[in-house]
Each structure stands twice: as C-alpha cells, then as structure tokens.
C-alpha cells in the first residue's frame, strides 16, 4: 500500500534515516557483540528529538500519529535493531502516560525525557504470560502506608539501563486477566533483582533478562490510571505495530 506522506512526515523520515546511517549503524555491531545498553545511540536519538516521538507537543514532544511513528522506527531499525527496539519500548510507555497519567504525572515524567534524555522500560511478560495472554501474577499490594510489588517478570528490556520501569501488576485480591495497573518504578528502587543473562542474537543490546520483585516499594503517584484502564486503552494493539516496524527495518 502506498501512503501519500506530508512534508513533516518526509522530513522526520529523512532525519531518522540520517541518524540511523551516521550515528547508530557504526555502533550496531559492537552494541550487539558486547550485549550492552546502546547509551551513545540513545543520546543521538534524544539530541535529534526522537525520544519524544509519542509525547504530546504541549509537553515538548513530537506527538506523532501511529503511521508517522512506525515509519520513523523502521528507519532507526535499519541502523541498529537494539536501539530501535529499546526506543520503541520507551515510546509505548510515553503513550500510556499520555492516556492514563494525571496532569501532575505528565509534568513530572515527561521532562525527564525531553530535558534529560532518560528512557523508560516496559515490563509485562511473565513465566505464565506470553503475548498479552494469561493472568498477571506480579502483585501490587498495600503494606503499611505504601504499595509494594512482588513477583517475577521475563524479557525486561533495558534492565539496568532505563531510568524507570513501567511494571504491569495485578492488584491483590483481583483477577489478573483484565484488572491490571501500571506502576512507574525508579531504576534504583530497593527490591529489584536481575536474574540470569540475556544472549539473543541481534537483540543482545536490548538487555532483557528476567527480574524479580521482593517488597519493592511504590509511591501512590507512580501508579498510572485506575484498575483495568490500561487494558482498555488500546495501546497494546499499537505496540504490535512498532514491533513490526523494527523487524521490517532490520530486514530492509
């Protein structure tokens, strides 16, 4: 299918193509070989304004529609699949903040990306939950005056590299199929333990091992939206489009 692209879309695609060719591609082999976070490439993506692709314009982002977004991600993946995949995971979290976050949360979290170049990871996969199916076993429960997270996650992209992790949780006492909440947990929070190693050809630089949570404390204002709201947002479907764009870019 041919799309008639507007001037802004063509300019963004050209910027992404140049970033991929001049900045990402020269590092891509070493990033994957060393299985390390592509921090220098993240900085280049940020410096060209592309870490805020899915942040609304009023908060300093680009506010891209889904078509423009996947076209940019495809170009980035042509230079480095590790960088493109991690930026995609980060960008999905930005959509959740836009959809579920309060004005106060947006004013807190978005500047960490726009002004500081931080990345946010998204951790939803579990041993018994693949592809968005099955019940979430990671539990968010009340303990004293705070919430805590307990459970295990798989494929935790940017573990040890992202600034915050959006953890998909089931609220204690509720069915974990459609009663999910998202908690934005800082990377240096106590109670987060990385388990095992990550060694996947072509995606080693996403650094996506398993992670265990043990009484990991969560402040009230780190929780996005109401119970079940994330599942009804439709963002999970958009997430799949970005995945496809990464692999199309890698194949191209």
TrEMBL record:
<dbReference type="GO" id="GO:0003995">
    <property type="term" value="F:acyl-CoA dehydrogenase activity"/>
</dbReference>
<dbReference type="InterPro" id="IPR013786">
    <property type="entry name" value="AcylCoA_DH/ox_N"/>
</dbReference>
<protein>
    <recommendedName>
        <fullName>Acyl-CoA dehydrogenase/oxidase N-terminal domain-containing protein</fullName>
    </recommendedName>
</protein>
<dbReference type="InterPro" id="IPR046373">
    <property type="entry name" value="Acyl-CoA_Oxase/DH_mid-dom_sf"/>
</dbReference>
<dbReference type="InterPro" id="IPR006091">
    <property type="entry name" value="Acyl-CoA_Oxase/DH_mid-dom"/>
</dbReference>
<dbReference type="Pfam" id="PF02771">
    <property type="entry name" value="Acyl-CoA_dh_N"/>
</dbReference>
<dbReference type="Pfam" id="PF02770">
    <property type="entry name" value="Acyl-CoA_dh_M"/>
</dbReference>
<dbReference type="InterPro" id="IPR009100">
    <property type="entry name" value="AcylCoA_DH/oxidase_NM_dom_sf"/>
</dbReference>
<dbReference type="GO" id="GO:0050660">
    <property type="term" value="F:flavin adenine dinucleotide binding"/>
</dbReference>
<dbReference type="InterPro" id="IPR037069">
    <property type="entry name" value="AcylCoA_DH/ox_N_sf"/>
</dbReference>
<feature type="domain" description="Acyl-CoA dehydrogenase/oxidase N-terminal">
    <location>
        <begin position="7"/>
        <end position="115"/>
    </location>
</feature>
<feature type="domain" description="Acyl-CoA oxidase/dehydrogenase middle">
    <location>
        <begin position="124"/>
        <end position="216"/>
    </location>
</feature>
